[in-house]
Amino acid sequence: MKVAGWEAHLPEGVSAEGLDLTAKRSLPAAWAKVWETNSRSRSLFSQRHGWTSAGQLEEATRRVAGRLHGAGLRPGDRMLFSADSSLELVIAHVAALRSGIVVVPANTAYREREIAHIVGDARPRAALVDRDDRADWVRAAGSETLVLGPGVDLPDHLPPTLDAAAPEDPALIGYTSGTTGSPKGAVLSHANLLAGSESVRLAWRWAAADRLVLALPLFHAHGLCVGLHGTLLAGASAVLLPGFEVDAVLDAAGSHEASMFFGVPTMYHRLAQSPRVGELARLRLCVSGSAPLPAELHRSLAQRGGQQVLERYGMTETLMLASNPYEGERRPGSVGFPLPGVELRLDGRDGEIEVRGANVFGGYWDRPRATAESFADGWFRTGDLAGVDAEGCVTILGRSKELIISGGLNVYPREVEEVLLAHPDVAEVAVVGTPSDEWGEVVTAFVVPAGDRRTEEPLLAFAAQQLAPFKRPRRLHFVDSLPRNALGKVVKHDLAT
After folding, report:
1. What's the pTM value of the predicted model, to 2 decimals?
2. Which of 43, 50, 73, 193 yields a CA-CA distance of 20 to 30 A from 403?
3. Using CB atoms within 10 A of its CB, is residue 9 exposed (0-12), middle (13-18) or buried (19+)?
4. Dihedral of CA 476/488/183/165: which sign?
């Protein structure tokens, strides 16, 4: 069943017929025109540097593009970054895209094993990191990788030809875990990035006058591909925060007269608990994504915060797919209607969401088999199950894949299980997500011990060495056996309930 819905998002005077979200060819090409037209307008604020204008951003990214070119990076080369949010990181990221270099973001919480996998798989020519241990991990995994800080402290060189990437050229590889336990890279083209930003710019009425409080990490698609890319495309401005703190977000919104905030449900849970939650009412738009927003939390924010949070739905491989309407009812528990440019249908057998459009990636990096298995007749199979009401409004019902979403970040049980099984005290293990008001879900491990030892601390310490904090079990239960069906498969539903 195909789901319609573009009309719910388009502003007056914009027709769905003939809508071309990639007419500007690429984000760098579109940004260059914005910077030329509004060079004096404020673009990005950071506590360290104050305000950077659009013209200053163009100049800084051009300069860093020259440094990267002088270091030997060429279009199509990969550049990994794993660093906290900063103006320097933004400049390096934008410079890479302008140069045709493929950016590979990596979560700053990743440990050595996780960084080593990405370096070995993507084979980056350069890596931008802001900690000595990350630098050591990259060097150990890729001896030929040039390791730099986010400031790209290299000699200046004449920049290469900028903003010339073709729409189909690769722009970004976003690593997302798979059921096999090994994260795989989703290759997003310049057209994918542009289409994703254009669709929400239209749908959310994003304009040059808007100012976003950007507390989301830039290694994640929500902060990078929605928050940062959308801000620059709209010619708007953003206040960069190094991380999320309730008071810091609300202070920034007030002192900088912000109009927008994007967050994950865990952030909104903490905002709702603050006595200052009413300050959200000053914002034009608050968007929630990366995990389901509980309906009760949506209602609480409306009642106590004066803010009807707009929930949307997307994923690394596709960027934004659906959204509640900017103008119209925002339904608690629903992700709304397909965004402009997105074709969405439900598999008639189980209700799995399948999508296609200019925003949808072309495949996984060096994973032809995984790519083939993820598409059906040109439609990408998301693994999410949904229902649609008579008006075409989409509600996510569950997941066909064993994905845990904790604090807006994806955790695949297989990866956690493989780590725990490497410990000599573990005979069998099954990992599931269990409900949490704050995190949405928390990683929970059910362990069959190899002997008589039933002590949590050694296992949790072992997991801490191998896994990023958001992937580590927060709850651990010792059991005599795991529930299995007639074919011997572990019945995880029995554990989760």
Report:
1. 0.87
2. 193
3. buried
4. negative
